[in-house]
Write a structure and sequence with these properties.
Blueprint (H helix, E strand, L loop, with lengths): L2 H9 L3 H4 L8 E6 L6 H7 L8 E6 L6 H4 L7 E5 L4 H8 L4 E2 L7 H7 L3 E8 L7 E3 L7 H7 E8 L13 E3 L5 E4 L15 H11 L7 E2 L5 H11 L7 E2 L6 H8 L5
Parallel strand pairs: 1-2, 1-5, 2-3, 3-4, 5-7, 7-9, 10-11
Antiparallel strand pairs: 6-8
Helix pairs in contact: 6-7, 8-9, 9-10
Length: about 260
C-alpha cells in the first residue's frame, strides 16, 4: 500500500462523524451542481437542533437540499445561492434560499480575495494511485473554495466521473481533512428540453447573426437548446466553443460537424 492509501484510511470517517467539525456561526460551502454533497448534506441537516447560525453557500443545485427540507423555518441553516437552477429558483421564490448576485467569472477571485470559508464539503471521484481526487463534471471555483477553507471534507462518490483538465480540476489527499465514502450515487441528469415556439422564433433571429468560425457560449434550457439544434442543422462551418456550461446542444453540433 502507498502512503496515500494509508493517509486515505486515516482520514476516512462516517458522514455523521465528519460534520461534527461544523461549529456555530460557521460558513459552509457546498460547491456547484454535481460537486454538491448528498450524504454530508443529510448528516449536517441531522444536526439542526445542535447548531445555530450556519450559513451554507451553494450554486446550481441538482438534488434536493436536506438542510432546507429539514429546516424550512431557517432557524439553524441559512441557504444562499450564487447561480440558480430551476429547483433553486423555486426555493428562492418561497423565501427558503437567498440569491447572491455575482459576475460569474469573478467567482474564483471572490473566494481567493474576499470570502471566509470554515468548512468545504465537496463531492469528488475516487482517489487515484497518486492520491488525487477530481472534482468530476463540475470544476467551477471548487479549487479556490477548498484552498480557502479551514477544513475540507470530501464526499467520495464511486459514480462520479474522473475528469481531467490540467488546471484546478483535482485535490490531493494531503490537502484534505476528512473523507466520507458515499458509495455509488447516480449522478444527476438535466433532461434535454426542447424550446417552445417563442424560443424557436428567437433562435431563428440569433442564427442569422452567427458567422462561420464564430465561438459560441450556450447556457441551460429551452432557448439555448433551440439555438444549438438549429445550428446543428445549418450550414455553418468551423465553429468553436468557450463555455462554462457544456450542454447537450454542443453534442448535437459536434455530431453534425459544425463544432470543430
Amino acid at each position: 500500500m502507498s502512503q496515500w492509501t494509508d493517509m486515505y484510511k486515516e482520514k476516512t470517517v462516517s458522514a455523521a462523524e465528519a460534520v461534527k467539525i461544523v461549529k456555530d456561526h460557521d460558513w459552509v460551502d457546498y460547491g456547484m451542481a454535481t460537486s454538491q454533497p448528498i450524504v454530508l448534506d443529510k448528516a449536517l441537516a441531522a444536526r439542526k437542533d445542535e447548531l445555530k447560525d450556519i450559513k451554507v453557500r451553494m450554486a446550481f443545485s441538482l438534488s434536493p437540499r436536506h438542510i432546507i427540507d429539514e429546516d424550512p423555518e431557517r432557524k439553524t441553516f441559512t441557504a444562499m445561492n450564487w447561480h440558480m437552477s430551476g429547483y433553486d429558483r423555486k426555493l428562492c421564490a418561497q423565501g427558503l434560499s437567498n440569491f447572491i448576485p455575482m459576475m460569474y467569472r469573478n467567482k474564483p477571485s471572490i473566494y481567493r480575495d474576499i470570502l471566509d470559508v470554515d468548512v468545504a464539503m465537496i463531492t469528488v471521484s475516487p482517489m487515484d494511485k497518486h492520491g488525487f481526487f477530481t472534482f468530476g463534471s463540475t470544476v467551477s471555483a471548487t479549487a479556490e473554495i477548498c484552498k480557502k477553507a479551514k477544513k475540507v471534507i470530501l464526499e467520495v462518490n464511486e459514480a462520479a466521473p474522473r475528469v481531467l483538465g490540467g488546471s484546478d480540476e483535482c485535490i490531493h489527499i494531503s490537502d484534505v481533512d476528512l473523507v466520507v465514502e458515499a458509495g455509488s450515487i447516480p449522478m444527476p441528469i438535466i433532461p434535454f428540453k426542447d424550446g417552445n415556439d417563442t424560443d424557436k422564433t428567437i433562435a431563428k433571429m440569433i442564427l442569422k447573426e452567427i458567422p462561420d468560425g464564430a465561438t459560441l457560449q450556450l447556457g441551460v434550457g429551452g432557448l439555448p437548446n433551440a439555438v444549438g439544434a438549429m445550428i446543428a442543422d445549418s450550414d455553418l462551418k468551423d465553429l468553436g466553443m468557450h463555455t462554462e456550461m457544456l450542454v447537450d446542444a454542443f453534442l448535437l453540433m459536434y455530431k453534425k460537424g459544425r463544432l470543430t
